[in-house]
Amino acid sequence: MKRDLPSGELIAALAVCLFGAGAIWIARDYSMGTVTRMGAGYVPVMLGILLIAMGAVLAWQARAAGPADSTPALRPFALIMGGILAWALIVERLGFVAATVVLVVCCSAAEPRSTVWSTLALAAGLTVGGYLLFVTGLNIPLSAFGD
Amino acid sequence: MDLISGLALGIETAITYEALLFCLIGVTVGMFIGVLPGIGPLAAVAMTLPITYHLQPMSALIMLAGIFYGAQYGGSTASILLNLPGTSTTAVTAIDGYPMAKQGRAGVALFITTLTSFFGGCVAIVLLMSFAPALGKMALAFSSAEYFSIMLLGLIAAATMALGSPLKGMVSVTAGLLLAMVGMDTTSGELRYTFGILELQDGLNLVAMAMGLFGVAEILSNVGKPRPTDGHLKTVRLRELMPTRQDLAQCYKPAMRGAGIGSFIGILPGAGPTLAAFLAYAMEKRVARDPSRFGKGAIEGISAPEAANNASTQAAFIPTLALGIPGDASMAVLLGAMMIHGITPRPEFFSSNADLFWGLVVSFWVGNLMLLVLNIPLIGVWVRILRVPQHLLFPAIIFFICVGVYSVNNSTFDVAMVIVFGALGYVMNLFQYPTAPLLMGFILGPMLEQHFRRALLFSRGDLTTFIDRPISAAFLACSAALILLMLAPAITRLARRRRAG
Question: Which residues pair with A33 in a beta bridge?
């Protein structure tokens, strides 16, 4: 990484400030009230101010830090998150079986050591076992193949 | 109700076939999940929550509590055998436990761990029995000002005593408090931060948040990474378990000190088993005649922290049950689970739900005893579980997370929230912002805001109400002391620079 990039610490600290500022900005429409009778916006705005202040201190502390040394692993991140999202999108439409198979395939792809056979075996095992445990056993309202 | 009749009631409630069965299921499942690398007690409780929905509150509570401390036990097994602590709590155990395993003394280490954990748990249960109802009685006189102050203390403790930067801990707590604002404001009925999304009106889902921050984030940080060598992972034979007379003589005093530290830390709201274990370890190192033995397989180095973390786990039930204020993040999830079952811990809990309280206490004994009996003959099974390769384990865990979160409200929206919190947790881990305080803030947020607003309503906006009441003032003084302690290094640095300049 190049030296002139801002450090990860600094970005994180600025994100904290941004989070606080966003909270205050959204709360601008909420009733503030008085100290005695606080409205819905009073406490959130106070917390937002607190966050901005702490973020500023962290940013000040971070100015000496070097650039980020840990690079996030994007591929497994995207695969696992994609698997969860797919499960959430599919399970009520195409059913438990399809959702679980897609989830297992995505998550297995994130692990370099998994093989086609291990993935298939795991998908089959989790689909059948999970269906019996959660749908048949615990009455979670999901259907195997959608409506 | 006095101790004896309470115990009698508890035995009556907890020694039934049903209660025993669910206690056994709880500790076994907890142990099983705890052994799995990367997931600790918190994720264990959150993942198994759906299984308890159809149970009676009593059975559900016994089972969840069993899962909770069972997972604590299981975590130490993974630390010793694989140097792969499931959570930061058991990371301390790995420091001396793993070297012992390398020296071929894994069996002894496991046995001592089980024994001292049991001991620590017992000490704290006695405390819980004698102390919690009294605290509950005292808390009946608490008003909003006291509740606000004690929760503030809990949050500040959670933030500043977490490992790493205390300021980052404070940021986490504050962010958690803000996340708690999402949904309908109970006082005014106004909607906050819902962005017009219907599902957000009841607030963010606790289980989705916990699973994202702890389950998914943990897997994301471990996925694709090579596992430490498991060369010492041979099955441990029963004969190898027996400690020598010298081992026992060396570990009973550390276990007692550890149990004391753990109980004390457990009672404090906001300070959990991780801190207890670290403090107990540091203490042993300080009192030892030869501190250089630590880290190379010193038996004191596993017995004290193990006694401490189990004592604090059990003692953490004291503020949780008496005040409804969880001791740490895992306790917070357990508290959420209780509320799902319609049990609201509050000072009256001990008189109005006497059977529940005493039944739970007795089930702790039973559960701890079961773990003691279970853990040892089943070590071979745990070793085999530890060998389950990651590429099978991780997809399975993600699957259980999805179904578990879905089952809370039968909502795919909640499952999608897991992604958001998983990403948040991953980024926070990357920049070393502790995630447990965030969850603490989220759980205590609504109560904290309510009591804050109510206290100021009663005092007509007079902020001195928080220091006029002595108990509230004492809590605030402790909070101030913690903040000063956090600032101390910065202040001395400034002073030194001024003197130098």
Answer: A38
